[in-house]
Amino acid sequence: MAQFLRWTLGQTDVGPFSEYPYSEYWAYADYKYIAMLFEDQPCMFEDVKWSDFGFEGRNGRDSTVWIGTSGANTPCHMDTYGCNLVLQVQGRKRWHLFPPEDTPNLYPTRIPYEESSVFSSVHVQSPDLKTFPAFQAARAHIVTLQPGQVLYVPRHWWHYVESVDPVTVSVNTWIELEVDDFARVSEAVTKMVVWAIKSAESEDNNDSWLNPTEEGSASHNENLQYLNLAVAACAQRPRGLRHGETSSHIRDAHPVKRDSSGQLKSSDSDKNPPSFSVPFGPHLTAVCCQQEKPEEDDEISSSRDNVSTSQNDYAPSSEGSPATSAAFEQEKNTCGTGLAPCECAAGASKNSPEESKCTTISTNDLLACLVHPEIITRVTELLLERHKNHL
Q1: N or C end of the chain, less CB within 10 A?
Q2: Is 216 left (phi over 0), alpha (psi -120 to 50) or beta?
Q3: What's the pTM value of the predicted model, to 2 decimals?
Q4: H or E stretch including 121?
Q5: How far apart are CA 378 and CA 383, in angstroms?
Q6: What is the β-pairing status of strands 108-114 and 117-120?
Q7: Which of 66-70, 137-141, 354-358 has the lowest mean pLDDT?
Q8: How far is the C-alpha of 370 from the C-alpha of 289, rounded, in Å?
Q9: Which of 281, 355, 308 is nearest to 84 (CA)?
Q10: CB neighbours of 158 closer than 8 A, spacing ≥ 6?
Q11: Of residues 43, 40, 47, 5, the one with CA closest to residue 312
């Protein structure tokens, strides 16, 4: 941490950071669990209390710390079965939020793949409207989070996050919510298709398609077993139960968020998610929708009734302590996230704009179509219908 801070000040004694000029790179350390970092200092996480926002029993033990420099950002994505509560500790972060209804306008993709997230193919700050014309209809909710403020991000709300100041620190708690059995089958189908295709060896299949938080591997048999568990549980639903209604028949079999080492994070609170309601009132301020990017100021700039704030996210990394590992990204690199697979396909020329266009279908192009939400939904329906007919 000391080396990181010296690096942001332009000093030379910065250890591994010396390989990356501060003027060309930004750094980001994410998903560092406070209870792990400060295991010998419990006061560091006991003072983080989320009960004021309806999350009874939640404190720093269930929270992660995020540290970044100016320019650090998390690609636009939405979490499939959880919600977030974020406390800004130091510096400012600008959040670009989009409601679930805007999903078609954000061109969802599962590349890079992550169990609990779906990414947008659009770079929301500099969108290619010729390639993604529907994005023009997206309704941006933009808020610059100040130190001491808390942002509640409901489930299925899309968000792109960028650090504004030289050093930003925030604390996040992620709550897994109940997921209906149909959604579990869809997740299982997606995972099986992604792992099957990306496990195949080919010239264009060696890119970083796996999101850094989704470390590890799963065998075909393991994925198939989970798919069968999900289908069986869904088939047991009472007749007439809609997709959006919840069930917890196979909750223990469903993966949750991973920790900093890539291992699945589980706890009593994850297995039995709390019932809660966000206490809108004097401590919470609704963020309103706006289409224009806000000016650089200290005011909350935007949301709807269920997005609120309160006053009170790839390259080299260290293999040592989670406290010192960090992700690096060159500011001018637009392909590092894997969100534009066509432009990043193996063999693509970078000599001119015309030559950089893809002329062949890549593995990622095919995969992006196969795991499109509409396709996965239809495959899930067919699987469940087939299973029902075989009973």
Answers
A1: C
A2: left
A3: 0.72
A4: none
A5: 9
A6: antiparallel
A7: 354-358
A8: 33
A9: 308
A10: 76, 77, 78, 97, 98, 99, 100, 102, 103, 106, 120
A11: 47
pLDDT tens sequence across 205-252: 776 677 777 766 778 898 899 899 989 888 776 544 434 433 333 233
- For 70-96, the pLDDT digits (tens) are 999 999 999 888 888 999 999 999 999
Beta-bridge partners for 109 = 119
For the segment 6-28, the average pLDDT, to the nearest whole number, is: 93
Residue owning tokens 């010998």: 40
Strand-by-strand arrangement of the 108-114 sheet: 108-114, 117-120, 73-79, 158-163, 93-98, 141-145
- Beta carbons within 10 angstroms of residue 238's beta carbon: 7
Is it the case that residue 294 has pLDDT exceeding 90? no
Place of tokens 């299949």: 205
| Mean pLDDT value of segment 92-108 | 95
Give the pLDDT mean for 110-128: 89
DSSP calls for 299-355 = S-----TT-EEE--------SS-TTT--EEEETT-SSTTS--TTTT-TT---SSTTT
| DSSP reduced 3-state for 190 | helix
- What pLDDT does residue 137 have? 95
Q: Give every CB contact of residue 389 below 8 A, 6+ residues apart in sequence.
A: none
Residue 216 is predicted with a pLDDT of: 66
Q: Phi, psi (5° rounding) for residue 205?
A: -115, 35
CA dihedral 220, 365, 29, 156 (to 10 degrees): -80
Q: Which residues contact 11 (CB under 8 A, 6 or more apart)?
A: none
- What does the domain layout of the chain look like in residue ranges? 1-178+258-333, 180-253+341-391
Could you tell me where the DSSP H helices lie in 145-237? Answer: 181-198, 220-235
Instruction: Report the pLDDT value the prediction gives residue 295, as an integer from 0 to 100.
Output: 47
**Six token digits for residue 122:** 């659009």
**H helices, E strands: number in the chain:** 8, 14
CATH class of this structure's domain 1-178+258-333: mainly beta
